[in-house]
Design brief:
- The protein has about 140 residues and is an all-alpha fold.
- The protein has a single domain, classed as Four Helix Bundle (Hemerythrin (Met), subunit A) (Up-down Bundle), CATH 1.20.120.580.
- Helix content is about 80%, strand content about 0%.
- It is built from eight helices and no strands.
- It has helices at about 5-20, 25, 30-35, 40-65, 75-85, 90-95, 100-105, 115-140.
- The longest helix has 30 residues, at about 40-65.
- The protein is elongated, with a radius of gyration of 15 Å.
Length: about 140
């Protein structure tokens, strides 16, 4: 096991909170508005990417702290947090597919389905708020 570094987790949570707040305007857009606004599309994609990557970083840090070894992949990092009781298992199952969304944003940026991104924003703003609360609760208990 490695020591849990609260500062790292808190910094990543800060990025997540900031990203969620910045995603609010995209949540209110229609698909047509979104598709015609290049800057909003690119900003939304980048904010989702940072949100998901921050969670994955937190996941890996906590899993390594508990188990002494990293998860096999980003998807599994969410599942393991649920299995370890760090976040609710049902939440981990709902969040795990966001690892795939992150990969699409990063690697398939030229073929992104805009409706998928807008749908992901709405889900992320709910699910990741729950994630942040669960992680804050966890790190409060670990001390």
């Amino acid at each position: 096991m490695t020591p849990l570094d609260r500062a790292i987790i808190e910094r990543k949570l800060g990025v997540m909170v900031e990203s969620l707040k910045a995603l609010e305007p995209a949540e209110r857009m229609t698909l047509e508005e979104y598709e015609t606004n290049l800057y909003m599309r690119k900003a939304t994609e980048r904010l989702l990417q940072e949100l998901i990557e921050s969670a994955i970083d937190i996941n890996i840090h906590i899993v390594v702290n508990i188990k002494g070894t990293a998860p096999d992949d980003s998807y599994r990092s969410f599942i393991m947090l649920g299995e370890l009781g760090v976040i609710p298992a049902e939440l981990s199952k709902k969040l795990a597919p966001s690892a795939g969304l992150r990969n699409i944003i990063v690697h398939e940026y030229d073929t992104i389905d805009n409706s998928l991104i807008l749908s992901a924003v709405k889900k992320a703003r709910t699910l990741y708020r729950d994630y942040i609360r669960a992680i804050e609760e966890y790190i409060g208990e670990v001390e």
